[in-house]
Amino acid sequence: MSGPVWRIDDEDGDPDLTGAPSPLLVTVRTLGAALARTWSTVLAVCCLGVLVGLGVLSMVPHPVSATATLLMVAPNPDDASAMTTDISLLQTRAVGERVIAELDLEESPESLLSTVTATPVSNQIMTVSVDGPDDDEALRRATSVVAHFLEFRAEQLRTVSAGLVAGYERRIASLQARVGELTREYDRASAATVDQVRLSDIVTERAALGTQVTDLQRSIEDATLASDAAVSATHVIDEPAATPFGSRRQVVLVGASGGLVGGVLAVGTILLRTLTSERLYRRRDVASALGVPVRVGVGTIPSGGRLSRIWTAVTRGIATVLRGHPRRWSEPLRSRRREALVQGLRAALPSPLGTPEWDEHVGGAGARAGERSGPTSLGLAPMDRAATGATVLRALADRLVERGGRVLLVDLTASGALVGTRATEPTEAPVDGPGALTLFRPEGDPALTPGPLPGPRRRGPSPEGLDRLSAVWDEVDVVLALVEVDPGLDLDVLATWVDQVVPLVTAGRTSRELLTTIASLVAEAGVDLPFALLEGADRSDRSSGRGAPSGEEPADLPADERPGEPVADATRVRAVHAR
């Protein structure tokens, strides 16, 4: 029997598995861009962490310690374990009980000794630290602990010396008794006739015993002298003193720890949000969600309010410290970005006012006979920041008025970002230019109020308040409307105000699902969606958002974000056992 033979059969391939895989949602470039975009936030959180750490250091109750430095002299200077013995004596219950009895403390010896720390600095220098609830109590406890420890150590050294001396004395007494016996034996032997050799041995042994007695007596003196010297030489070098709280080293360590913890939390939160968030930041993603190109994408435009000015001042100071020059959040930069959005929105209108192309677009064939088919209507739909949309739309209206155009500004936002929250009739606004500017906001809920245009699915006549608008509507050249697009409302009303809508998307504030839904609802309402504008674009974004022909790979994608090669038809691998 032969072994198994593998045969690849691709005739049953599943055609549904073909196609190119979708690009990575989050790449290393995306994570780096998120950190670069929020560096000021990370720095602010680090500074906040430093302040919190220092605040905790100064506000949270903390134990106070008193420290004393001792010179420990051992009876035997060559004893390597002398310092270990002294530390063990310090941690005995006897010392704790004496301190508790003297200070009348209501705690156990073990609890007291747990607050005592002995640190050997050298073979003869030791520091003793005692913790207490406050400076005075820590100083009182440290003084008592040091005094009783030295007293207890002296007692133990004297006890050891006394025991050694007692042993020497017993040995001397035994040797002296033997010397007395030898002396008596020598006297008896000298009176009788005996062997001279025995007399010589007696003399020699007695002399040896006398030498031992003399050595033992010298040892007694040495032991007593060493013990007394160790006791008298051991003393306190530095008297107990409270350790100052909040030393420079402690402040630096706590502040650095707080800043480090804050930075780690900030970076972790940013990366986690980047990995899990569905919000869109890049032009290509916004264009893909809406199905239309992003014509203009600029950085964040400050609102100019009080909070914005405070934040600008803070970031300017931080940038000055780090870079040596302030961050360029100036009015020219704000104006330049706003002008870019205005010019991008202007592209949705026909040729400039007063040109034959404009007349052809507005009036068609009847324009030459003095007839008009109606104004050009354009809506701007801010997805998040209505104030920015109102600024851009008003700037575009001013440009058209300067060219002699007659413009009607309609505010269809609930917040009244363009003309305020009060319902107004068509009102002439003072302008600098040959044209005319009219402001209007309908009564009631603007998102539910139909406009003068018929619309694809209009229901009923226009409200009474809009009759006065019809005369103004037919006389203007351009109608600019600031609209709010809510997926939960009926967008068919939008077609009664404008013919086309340009979404103003704020990077990082909207999701793909929301943009896709809005694009679908606007299309169902019969309103044209020519392109989109992006505000708050990231400086690290290298995509254009203009899209690419079907089947072609966008040329502006980084290498790590390009779609992979098409996946071949799936094949099945079968094991065929040949016999």
Automatic annotation (TrEMBL):
Keyword Membrane: yes or no? yes
Keyword Transmembrane helix present in the record's keywords: the answer is: yes
Alphabetical GO CC annotations of the entry are:
plasma membrane
Annotated transmembrane regions: 39-60, 251-275
Region (Disordered), start-end ranges:
442-466, 538-579
Keywords, A to Z?
Coiled coil, Membrane, Transmembrane, Transmembrane helix
Which ranges form a coiled coil?
Answer: 165-192
Query: What are this entry's molecular-function GO terms?
Result: protein tyrosine kinase activity
Which InterPro entries does the record match to this protein? Answer: Bact_polysacc_biosynth/exp
Task: Tell me the domain of life.
Answer: Bacteria
Q: What is this protein called?
A: Polysaccharide chain length determinant N-terminal domain-containing protein
* Natural source organism: Knoellia aerolata DSM 18566
Lineage of the organism: Bacteria, Bacillati, Actinomycetota, Actinomycetes, Micrococcales
